[in-house]
Structure formats: C-alpha cells, structure tokens
Specification:
Layout: H1 2-18, H2 26-33, H3 40-74, H4 87-100, H5 105-130, H6 135-160, H7 166-174, H8 183-202, H9 204-210, H10 214-219, H11 224-246, H12 252-264, H13 268-290, H14 300-318, H15 320-323
Helix pairs in contact: 1-3, 1-13, 3-8, 3-11, 3-12, 3-13, 4-5, 4-6, 4-7, 4-11, 5-6, 5-11, 8-11, 12-13, 12-14
Amino acid sequence: MLAALAVCLLIALLIGSVVGPFPLPIGDVIAAVFGATTAEPTNTILFQIRLPRVLAAMLVGGGLAAAGATYQTLFRNPLVSPDILGVSAGAGFGAVLGILLSLPVLAIQGLGFVMGLVTVAVVYALARALHSQNEVLVLVLAGIVVGALAGAGISLVKILADPYNQLPAITFWLLGSLAGIKPIDVAGFAPLVILGLVPLALLRWRVGVLSLGDDEARALGVNVVVVRGIVIAAATLITASAVSVSGVIGWIGLMIPHMARLLVGPRYDRVLPASALMGAAFLVLIDALARTVARIEIPLGLLTALIGAPVFVWLLARSRRVWS
C-alpha cells in the first residue's frame, strides 16, 4: 500500500509540473528533470516557477498530514488538527504583523515561523504550570485560549492595515497560497520540515504506545513527559514551517489521516508514512487545480475546505469501526 501511495505521489508530482497557465509537454519535463537539454522557456518555467511550487506543495501537504496524524494519535482524538495548540494562529499573527510592518518576504516568513513556535511554547509552559491531573486536556484548552488570543491579534492587525495594499495581501495570505514560492523559499523551509519528521519516524513505536494512555505507556517503559514533549515539538516545527510559507491551509491535517487509516489501519507506524504520502499528493493536485480551474488563482485554503468538508463527513461515517 505504501508503495502504491508513493507511485501516486510521483504521478501527482508529474501532473503538477505539467499543468498550469503555461502547460509543459510531459516529455520535455521528464527530459529536463533528468538533465537533458530542452528549450529555454521550458527550463525557466520548470526550474524557477513550477518545480519549486510543486516541491513546496509536497512538503507542506505531507508535513501537515503527518502532524495531524501525530496529534490525533497523541491526544487520542480523531477530530484534532495540527492547529490544536494554536501554532497556525500564532504563525498567522506573526506573518500578518510582518505584512503590516512592510517587511521583506523572507522576514515575513521568518516572523511567522518564530511566532508559531513561541505560541506553542507558551501553551506548553502554561499547561505545565497548572499542574493538572489531566495534562492532555489542559494542554488542549491552553492551546484554544492562546490560539484565540492570536486570532484576536490577527483581527486587530487587519483593522490597522492599509485597506488598499496591506489588507488584500493579509487576506490572501490567510487563505493559503503557494503563488510566490521561489527556490530559495523551498531551500529555507524544507530542512525544517524534514527535521520535524525525523523524530516522529524514530519515535513511531513510542507514539503508538502513548495512544493506549499514559498509565499503560508508563507500565511499558515509555517516558511519557519526554516523549510527548519531543513529539509535540517536532509536530509544531513542521506546522510552523509550513504555515509560515504557505499561509493557513486547513483540512489536510484533519482529513488525510482518516483516509490513511481506512487504507492501512489505525497503527501509528503505518498511518504516519501513509498520511505523509497522501497529504503530499493531495496538496500537489489541489495546487495544480488552483492555478488552472479559473482565470485567476484560487486560494488553496478555499479549495481544501470545499473538498475537505464533504469528504470528511463521509470519512467520519466510514471510519467509526476503525476507531472503535
């Protein structure tokens, strides 16, 4: 199944590289990727515009889906998404604040990334300071509170922004887009996403044990506090990196893990790679659809919501047995 999903991802990458406002011949794309000489317009469009965007969509979609699968397993709740601890709201607040201050693009992405990490750090510190018996519940509630504060900050920035220049940019960014991705952007956030995925892969067995409950995990020799902290930090790093580059794209981290469980079962060591592969292929295809379905580019968050909402309702009806 994982091999089939990998093949589907390769097909999605090929489709994403070919389609667009300026379609490219499949043969020229394959030849250019393997180093053969092609016409100059093909090389420029493929390597400077199309491939960076496709690779960014793969990393963002795969990262968000992997983070969503991790949070759902860690908190033992199938309705949890990567922004449960406020990381998306925090990264969004940092990015819109950068737009308000008219910072360069790289500075906006960097500020969004840092604010996403700071938000989750505040949430985790607040949950630890409360010393509750149910640490997971307090962690989620603290994330909701801090995320609401970050959302209020976003609303305040939108009120203060220039309605002719800054406000449209803020609104478009919050809806999610990969239109302005450049090779340097991919080189900047790709190592962060990979760095976040490595601990999740190495700790996949312990995360699966954590899904049984804290008492059972301790009885089986798992250091619950340390493992949970590392996993939350890794998933937060992935989410903050993705949101800082693409904006807020919803439903991937919520919907894709459910689809993966229908294919490979509920075990985390299988759900994690399946979710990453499916999320990567899904967002690559959604991005290709966003730039071809209409005369103007449609925000990715809008398309994922239009597709994800009805699909998620169907998945909930189908996946009751998986979670029972």
